[in-house]
Amino acid sequence: xxxxxxxxxxxxxxxxxxxxxxxxxxxxxxxxxxxxxxxxxxxxxxxxxxxxxxxxxxxxxxxxxxxxxxxxxxxxxxxxxxxxxxxxxxxxxxxxxxxxxxxxxxxxxxxxxxxxxxxxxxxxxxxxxxxxxxxxxxxxxxxxxxxxxxxxxxxxxxxxxxxxxxxxxxxxxxxxxxxxxxxxxxxxxxxxxxxxxxxxxx
Amino acid sequence: xxxxxxxxxxxxxxxxxxxxxxxxxxxxxxxxxxxxxxxxxxxxxxxxxxxxxxxxxxxxxxxxxxxxxxxxxxxxxxxxxxxxxxxxxxxxxxxxxxxxxxxxxxxxxxxxxxxxxxxxxxxxxxxxxxxxxxxxxxxxxxxxxxxxxxxxxxxxxxxxxxxxxxxxxxxxxxxxxxxxxxxxxxxxxxxxxxxxxxxxxx
DNA sequence: GTAACTATATATAATCG
DNA sequence: TCGATTATATATAGTTA
Lengths: 202, 202
What we know:
Two copies of one chain form a homodimer. The first copy, chain A, is mainly α and 202 residues long. Chain A is built from five helices and two strands. The first copy, chain A, starts with 13 loop residues before the first helix and ends in a 44-residue tail after the last helix.
């Protein structure tokens, strides 16, 4: 945005990521407040930093806005009426269920299924999304390929007698294609500072 | 903010309030998306316009963010003890949320994001999926296009009669009307604001 | 209603203290 | 690690078509 325009992708450097987060978060909340005031809109904004800190804002009451959101989204699916008690507190569940449906449909459409009834405009948008995806996938593929080739060359040059294999995911990627002989490119690049408090399934 | 600085208070004029709402809403959602991407933050944003239209965005899953927010704030409030039913409901919620996470990841990868760490094999699979999707989307697009053209031609033929090659005394409203009519079967219009969902109140 | 088009106001990345 | 500064990139109020 300044001095130099930045690309919108995850900032690698942890420090500058935190600085940017702090600045932009303030800006975002300010914009939200302004929109609410100027246009009489009801707004809820929830932000979790990557370290798990919570920031939130609501023009009225967080619960109220969420409840309203819940009511609108609930109408889109047939929820089996759980119990009167539950109805009040299952907003997250209802929303999640609806989200699964939405995302499932979107996935199918990206795969070229369930396209009937879509307008030309929507089809064009899909096409654009797919074009973008394929271009980035191809780019990444070349990068990975180059990296593997380089690693292979290094290995041949220095040491010819070492084989290393690490059980990664349960995916049996032994059946790789020709160029993929030494699967050196599957290191799990995980995050560093995530005191994530999200719940896990048992 | 431009031409002249405005005061942050409710805009009286209804028209300009709506225009401002539309512009600023887009800006706000864009900022939210950018913050999420740049800083790896989890964000939920809910906006109700003064007319009751809903717009929302969530970096991952709305239900998940709300649930996480609830958990954090729950500690501050005295909650009536969770009943057995609620616990069951939470696990259902957790399952749904996990599904949302999985589908979200897959969607992002199809869009060419979050590709790091994927093996060549997985990238090839993605590419194949995308190729298939785009081919079917293109096919459907041509079909829809042909259909609309055909409908248009039929309409013009019956309205104007046949072999009226040169007597172009017919007014343009016919063309306009038929054009609109042919697309009347299009699905309900959505607000094109990325992943925002909009609804109307009764 | 809306789709550009500016001229400015803001936001903010990089830098400095 | 911060706050302050500054040079640019963005956002957008007012306007026009």
